[in-house]
Amino acid sequence: MASLVPCPHCGARPKEEFTIKGAALARPTPDAGTEAWMDYVYLRDNPRGLYEEYWHHTSGCRRWLVVTRDTATHDIEHSRDVALSQLTDIRP
Amino acid sequence: MTSYRLQTGGLIDRQTPVSFTFDGKRMLGFEGDSLASALLANGRQLIGRSFKYHRPRGILTAGSAEPNALMTIGRGGRTEANTRATMQELYQGLEAKSQSRWPSLEFDIGALNTLLSPFLGAGFYYKTFMWPAPLWEKLYEPFIRKAAGLGKATYEADPDTYEKCWAHCDLLIIGSGPTGIAAALTSGRSGARVILVDEHSASGGSLLSETASIGDVSASVFVQQAMDELHSLSNVQILTRTTAFGWYDGNVFGAVERVQKQVALPNVALPVERLWRIVAKKALLASGAEERPLVFGGNDIPGVMMATAMRTYLNRYGVAPGKDVAIFTTNNSGYALANDLEARGIVPVAIIDSRPDGNSAYAGKARVINGAFVSDAHGGKALSSVSIFKSGIAETIKVDALAMSGGFSPVIHLACHRGGKPIWSDEQSAFLAPNGLKGMELAGAVATTVGIAACLEDGANRAAALIEGLGFKTSPASFGTVERDIVSPAAKPVWNIPGIKGKAFVDYQNDVHREDLGIAVQEGYGHVELAKRYTTNGMATDQGKLSNVNAIGLLAQARGVSPAEVGTTTFRPFYTPVSFGALTGAYHGEHFQPVRKSPLHGWAKKNGAIFVETGLWYRSSWFTRDGETTWRESVDREVRNVRVNAGLCDVSMLGKIEICGKDAAEFLNRVYSNAFLKLPVGKARYGLMLREDGMIYDDGTTSRLSEQRFFMTTTTAYAAGVMNHLEFCAQALWPDLDVHIASSTDQWAQMAVAGPKARLILQTVVDEDISNEAFPFLGAKEVSLFGGQLHGRLLRISFSGELAFELAVPASYGESVADALMEAGRNHGIQPYGVEALSVLRIEKGHVTHNEINGTVVPADLGFGKMVSSTKGDFIGKAMVAREGLTSSERPQLVGVIPLDPNTSFRSGSHILEKNAAARLENDQGYVTSSAFSPHLRSTIGLALVKRGSERHDEEVMIWNGIRNEFTPGRLCNPVFVDPENEKLHV
Q1: Alpha carbons B503 and B121: distance in angstroms, whole number
Q2: How many domains does chain B have?
Q3: Which residue of B81, B394, B415, B788 has the fewest C-beta atoms within 10 A of its own C-beta?
Q4: pLDDT one-digit tens code per residue, A15-66
Q5: How many residue contacts between A and B have a Cβ separation below 8 Å?
Q6: Which of B731, B875, B878 to mutate to test the interface with A (most CBs of A within 10 A)?
Q7: What is the interface pTM, i.e. ipTM, of the complex?
């Protein structure tokens, strides 16, 4: 039902305020080749344990975050603003 | 009549009688009664029929685990089925009806099912499916549907309101028995924010049923004093009638508060139920323990009851269970009841104790039979006698009530909701909470602490430790001596009782009896999860609160293993049923979702708009005029008028995004597939946004208002998505770019003025020269309006193919400006037009929308191949749009389609076949994406995605609607039906 996501700007907020995009992958360069692009666009790991995902604080500060989430326990290990890496990371 | 109200005693208000009805019969109870206690006080023990065999059933418990006493409460839209009579507070005028009976509770035809019981055993549903199919449909299923089922829901709307809210605390304490109260006093006195929840109407838990004293006062007075202190602390929130039903990620708890379920007519200013989400830094689970039934023959006959429940009815409600009471127990719990009964002048006729040595401390008058079992209870609608089995010798004694206690199961449900598995303890004969819980601790009986004194101490100590861990200073609360404390340590469980002759029920609510579990094991369904599905043990509204551990014990014995090896089924929320109303909260009816109204909504309304919901928006569909009887008449008129005079259309709901910064142009260049870097100031450009997989995501125009400032429009549907996407690109992909993005959809009222007379009309309000020379096609600039009274943005863009402008003004001026334009255009024949006409106009012009941009098309499919830049170094979708499959010449391409005979028609979604091809999937050439009646061509026209469509103009085809079996001969054509040379745009 309810769980909380630590936003580095807004503090702990209900997950309903967020939109999840999926795995936080680095975007390949335009000439990286078909295989790299197929990986980036279509293929996803499905690990048990810590996983980095892009979350958007859509109904909050509207910043994109990299959220490190444990896929087995749903515990959020860590979250950081994807762009403003110089900001202090917030840990729950 | 067996059970009855005692002359004195109990925590009920005998000065306040409460009138209620049960199956239409009027009865009296007292303020403070539960529905169950009031029924028992009225001598009512038969309160329902069982689910499958329709056996007479009585009240078994005094709490939320009740499997039998499910009733339908209330009338009309307030009808609530499957209400547990044990949890329902009595109120004036309460109407209760029994369930699962027909035609009446006393005489029930379904009881014949008992005769069919050999066929209705475990796996019945699965086995019957094996029988001849026609029999199943015609006979068995209707029979089962009629016989089975709990209460019936009402079809009437619920007149009451519900709400949802959040709460935050340092410590959440679940349960307000001795443990919870001690914990609340300890933590509350420290100043920490404490929430104390309890599912019952009054705080106190088991203390309300106790005859013990704490310090110098009775248990109930102790509760009163403690609660008075807690109520005086502003940092402590006490929620009674509130069930904590789930433990979720982030130490968030779900709870439902029954705010007004104890009144006949709720106060409309308050919700009837409130759904809480409680964020707790720490939680203390003090949920106590549930007494287990014993599985003997006839253990479901009305008059058989849990021992602690019988004690509650006796001590809290002043209700005696009967005159001749026997007690069957495996532990000391039964003796507490024996003492209390004796104190009220009811000496039990026998205490049947399964332990060979019994309870040596018992000094009461009842006859004690040690090392014995009740093998069978006898009676029909009421208990008449029990058979006692001891060392192979049977004895029958007359009784009208039988209490049973098979030991206690800690109520660990919440502790297991986050995936932890319960652990079997041989020592405690119970499943205990998983180890290593984060954010939650257990105290009191749920942690196998026994006795009031020990629970008080445990609650205080654990709360102190938790609160100190959060940085508060405190010391555990201390309490006076507890007199007449009941300490009932765990005893050896008795799963299989010898000498049983009748049906021995394990799960009362699902009518699962002992032999069913044996069958499950024999037939290979002995795994606990399989046995649950095969026998239905542990399903339905009580989710096996009383039955699961007994079932596991019986499965373990049948399989010859320990209960630890059998394990439990998974504990999931909700602990007890939660109403749809509470989960829905305020989100129903017109509040189901927000309504978005354009700043021009009022203007549209007074001009006769018929609105249509598109997403959250209310858009004007068309504007009916006097004498028009069909929507088509209105739409055709609006379309013609735009082509001949001019029309005004509200386009405020288009997404509007401000993009600024030194790198704004570079940013746009990367998010659009076509070039934007060199877009001149004062110009608008149509842009295509791709997804990374190369498909088109959205389209729209973006205008350069100054060197570093752009104004983007998106489609209505994708406004929010595009905004999120742009933010992702700016923040995640290219954080080095200096670009700032803000949505301004709600800040602008935007109107399209389209038609040959558009300029004439607009020029009357726009101060600047907007002649074709001064402001040519695709011009975009900030303009002054009404002699400098107002400023807006003017774009010379066209969706209709006519000379057209879009004017954006600050939202609050929208209606006045639209009024002024209508006034200025009156003599030029201006008329408002809606989205239906807008759609016809764009189809006539061959413009695409998300009907065509459907997630499977690339720019070349729509004839936009040149809009994919080959010179730009990078843009979203660049790498993937060049894939082989996306450049194939066989791909569907945008094409126009018209019927050969203009008097015939076709619909969107129809498929295109070659002229003489059979109507089969393999001959499919594509399909019609958009269609409309074109007043301009006086024919239905359509846009379609057809294989190699751009090469097939003028080909005759068959338009096939397979759903309606319609065939329309047609012809493919240029998708631009009006002004293919774009001359009108440039006048």
Answers
A1: 12
A2: 4
A3: B788
A4: 999 999 999 999 999 999 999 999 999 999 999 999 999 999 999 999 999 9
A5: 76
A6: B731
A7: 0.94
